[in-house]
Amino acid sequence: MYYRVNVRFGALRNVSTFKTTLTYLRDSDKVVIRSARGVEAGEVVSKPVVVEEDVVEEGNGEIIRKLTNEDKEELRKIEEESIPNAFKFCQKKIKEHRLQMKLASVEHLFGSKKMIFYFLAEGRVDFRELVKDLAKEYQTRIEMKQIGVRDEARLLADYEHCGRELCCKTFLKSLEPVTMKMAKNQKATLDPSKISGRCGRLMCCLRYEDNTYEELRCFLPKKGTIVRTAKGSGEVVDYDVLRQLVTIEMESGRPLVVPAKEILEYPRKGRQGESACGMTCPKEGVCG
Predict the structure, then answer these.
(1) Domains assigned to the chain
(2) Which pLDDT score is estimated for 280?
(3) Which of 95, 149, 217, 235 is the most exposed place for a label (fewest CB within 10 A)?
(4) Strand 114-120 to strand 141-146: parallel, antiparallel, or no bridges (unpaired)?
(5) Sheet arrangement for strand 102-108
């Protein structure tokens, strides 16, 4: 019998599933793992889940052990000494070779003879001579990894406009595309400075919140729909998705704000059963 555990690891804070026979792991425990990249340190982010012996799984790797005091001391030296020195040396060599690239971060895998240098560049960069210099200096395997501005924020930034840590550094497993349509679905301001994250691109939360907004909009009548309430009939002129409130312009001309659940029906002269999401409700009145 073994267990399946989610572990966050690497400079880009990736989250993957690892197998282990250790039974005493808890959330936030620091561990040594064997990943596809080699032996490195990670952090447990879920409780162990039992996997039956007859179930065959393709995992990302395995958890070797919890960090020992010796492991922690080695990690401290890597983070406080090896990485800063490697960063300075690489920057120096980039200038010497006049390469059009910006060094973002350096990762020295714990327990493995491998260093990864993350950089940004407009196009392709011939860094062969740079790799030779780095390999000669550190006598280890060198990997150059070109990243975009979203990964740069994931590496270097800490907090977002909301005051919380960046989603990409805490729980998001992958960075999926975010579209302007998602911002419009939330009726958010389209001012780029207010809907862009630390990376300068649309905020990731617009994407993972989008499904909830789409679902809630299906409980609301579309703008222009004629609806009937206990206080009379009128035309829908606006709605609040999260609070599920509908603004209706009554026949008298005055506005009325009511919860969506208080709308009785869509009379035949209106667009019966049509919700804010543009779908046709299978029942008369509000979706749901």
Answers:
(1) 2-67 (no CATH), 72-147 (3.30.300), 151-208 (no CATH), 217-288 (2.30.30.140)
(2) 47
(3) 95
(4) parallel
(5) 102-108, 114-120, 141-146
